[in-house]
């Protein structure tokens, strides 16, 4: 493991998803999933998210689309909050999900719009 890249990834992960979310994920680390968490921090968040060639906002927009199409609701919720942190607007999220509907399918978009509305309600204190 590249400790420097791992630490950079952990820093980026906390900045995007929030320290509480990441700390909660890390408190559940055990011998079974520790190598996966290390790989996630080093490669996903360090090697890729840590690159400067795309701004975090753009990376978040890409993630929203891809995760919505994959219909990974838990990850979608987390990355939706991260996207808002990274400056993606609700209007941009709507447009991304419209694109998902056409290119990824209506069922994926239906679930994603529902989750987005739930996240917005949570943020607005209406949940």
Question: What are its keywords?
Answer:
mainly alpha, 0% strand, 127 residues
In terms of topology, how is this protein built?
Blueprint: H1 3-17, H2 19-27, H3 34-48, H4 56-70, H5 73-85, H6 90-104, H7 106-123
Helix pairs in contact: 1-2, 1-3, 4-5, 4-6, 5-7, 6-7
Briefly summarize what is shown:
The protein has about 130 residues and is an all-alpha fold. It has seven helices and no strands.
Description:
The protein is globular, with a radius of gyration of 15 Å. 27% of the residues are buried. The protein is mostly helical and 127 residues long. The protein has 7 helices and no strands. It has helices spanning 3-17, 19-27, 34-48, 56-70, 73-85, 90-104, 106-123.
Strand content: under 5%
Mean pLDDT: 95
Question: Using DSSP, what is the number of strands?
Answer: 0
| Biggest sheet architecture | none
Listing every helix as H and every strand as E from the N terminus to the C terminus, the arrangement reads HHHHHHH
Shape annotation: globular
**C-alpha-based Rg, rounded:** 15 Å
The low-pLDDT segments are: none
The number of helical segments is 7
What structural category characterises the helix and strand content? mainly alpha
Percent of residues in helical segments?
over 70%
State the end-to-end CA separation.
Answer: 41 Å
